[in-house]
Specification:
The chain is of the alpha+beta class. The chain has helices at residues 43-82, 130-135, and strands spanning 4-8, 11-15, 85-101, 108-118, 123-128, 141-147, 150-156, 164-165, 168-169. Strands 5-4-3-6-7 form a five-stranded antiparallel β-sheet. It has a two-stranded antiparallel ribbon with strand order 1-2. The protein is elongated.
Length: 171
Amino acid sequence: MALTSVSSSMGQLSVDGFGVFDDMSGVPGFEGNQGGFFSGLNEFGAMGAFVSIFIGAVFLIVAGVIVYAIISGVRTWSSNNAAALLTLHSAVVAKRTEVSGGSGDSSATTRYYVTFEFDNGERIELIVGGNHYGMLAEHDRGMLTYQGTRFKHFERDVQPQSGVNKGQFYT
C-alpha cells in the first residue's frame, strides 16, 4: 500500500492508498479517535443518517402501497374470472358518478356506478362504462348479466310504445 505524505502549516499529514488520512489528530475539528462504526455520527453525520433512514422508510412505504395495489387488483380480477356468469331480472334503482383529478393541468377521470335491484330485493352496485351509463335510466327493468363485480350487459325489457297498443291509441 502506497503512503503519501503532505506537509502543511498544520503539520505533516499522510494518506494511505485509499485516500484516507492516517492521522488527523493535529487538524482542528478532527481531534480524537475518528475510526470505527460511529465515526460518521458527528453533528452533520447524525442528520445524514436520519435523512437516509427517513428516505429508506418512505421508499419502503411507497413500494409497499404499490405492491398492495397490484396484489389487490390481481385478487379482484381472479375472483371475477372464477365467479359464475349470471343473468338475472333486475331494475335500475340508482345511478351515480365519481370524478377524480382535474385540478390544474391534470385530466379528470370519471367512474360511473349503477345500482341494480333484483326481484328478490337484493341490490348490487357495479361500475359501468360511460356508454352503458348514458343508456340506462332509473326504473329501467330488464335482464342484468354480470360476473362477480364486473358488469357485462343489461337488456331492457321490451315495452309497448306509450299510447299505442296493436295500432290502437289508448283511451
